[in-house]
Amino acid sequence: MPHWLQAWLATYQDPMFWRFPMTGLAVSTGAFLAFALPLTALAAWDPVVLRRYKVQTAPFEVRTWLWPSLRQLGLNVVTVALLLTLSWPVLRLSGIHDGPWPAWWMVLAQLAFCVLLDDFLYYWMHRGLHRQRWLLKHVHSQHHRIRQCCAINGNYMHPLEYAATGALALVGPLLLGMSLPVLWVWLVLRQFEAADGHSGYVFPWNPGHLIPLYEGAGYHDFHHAKYQGNYAGFLPYLDRFFGSYAKGYLQWRAERHKPA
């Protein structure tokens, strides 16, 4: 066996291969399902008492898109697992480490940095997916087959888009040289946004509102309904700066916040 091949294979004997990319992928996938499946069950039930919290009045398309979404998620996870495996010889050189938790204020600062950076990067990638015709037709249009979203649809997307979204989510942790526990918290938070942003419900008791400026499912639901605008993930400030709100979103938000 060539020496270079032996050296390459030896990198996979590092315990961090399983603790960093593989466990991170498992945490990310498990978190998404933990958030998405109860919200999807709620959408399938669609209780009358909660309909005033729905973004759209049309029925959810749970029966149509549940199994396609689960199958696509499985394909996407396998694709990313292969990409992480191939990129491990480079990833292992990063500053991600298996050290202890930093101070609580450092955890909050690192998570805030990741939210802001990921949102900035995702805004431009997402906007680019809509502006570049080939990518829109052959990649991003798959996610837009669904107009009346429920939470399980959050990761129904082309494997290329899924991999790119995951890569953007890793940029912040790689720059910071995060410890693994904080990385896992960040991945859980990111998948909460993916599920909640597609849930179709805007609940006033949603814990996501603890994040300043977070607007929940209404913000992203308008993106699916109108096909253009509202390109960010967590926070809508970039759409304000660049004039890219979805048509009708600001009026809907203003009406929703009127006193009863």
Automatic annotation (TrEMBL):
It is found in: Membrane. Residues 112-244 form the Fatty acid hydroxylase domain. Its main location: membrane. The chain crosses the membrane at residues 20-45, 73-91, 103-124, 167-189. Pfam families: FA_hydroxylase (PF04116). GO terms for cellular component: membrane. It comes from the Bacteria. Keywords: Membrane, Transmembrane, Transmembrane helix. GO terms for molecular function: iron ion binding; oxidoreductase activity. One of its GO terms (biological process) is lipid biosynthetic process. PANTHER family: STEROL DESATURASE. This is Sterol desaturase/sphingolipid hydroxylase (Fatty acid hydroxylase superfamily). It comes from Inhella inkyongensis.
